[in-house]
Amino acid sequence: MKTLVTFFSAGGRTARIAKDLAKLIGADIFEITPVEPYTKADITWVNPMARCNKEKFGKQDVPVQGKIENFADYDCVYIGFPIWYGAAPNVVNTFCKDYDWTGKKVYAFATSGGSGIGKTAEKLAPYVSGAESVEAKLVKNVSEI
Fold first, then answer.
1. CATH number of the domain to which 94 belongs
2. Cβ neighbour number for residue 69 with a 10 Å cutoff
3. Beta bridge pairs of residue 134
4. How remote is the C-alpha of 75 from its chain's centroid?
5. Residue 39, CA atoms < 13 Å, CB-side half-sphere
6. Which residue from 10, 68, 103, 109 has the highest number of Cβ atoms inside 10 Å of its Cβ?
7. In total, how many domains does the chain have?
8. Is 77 in a helix, a strand, or coil?
9. How are strands ordered across the β-sheet holding 133-138?
């Protein structure tokens, strides 16, 4: 079984956990990076005009840099991200739309400054259509995955 750890990180916490996880389990790693990088102002969610809010409420796709050429080779995919409005950021959803998830086990690990995991797995499921299973867990460090 081949495993991949993918992640989007806005502040660094998710990146640290993803890198620790990939090293711990011997997985390949891919960073989900938007074509237009986020600035600090873009992710200041308390500003109703911030980019993160416009994307989330406008249900906008966020173009992603790069592509995983051998995605079909993976049986298990971990997806890490910070919780934005009780779900994955739109950039993660856009990333997921580009791949065939048929038969893959998907484990989402989310970081958060205050909100809970909520229905994150249910909200992610349509973007990983065909996945064998989709689970989500809120974590503070790699030992909680």
1. 3.40.50.360
2. 7
3. 106
4. 17
5. 4
6. 109
7. 1
8. strand
9. 28-31, 3-7, 76-82, 105-111, 133-138
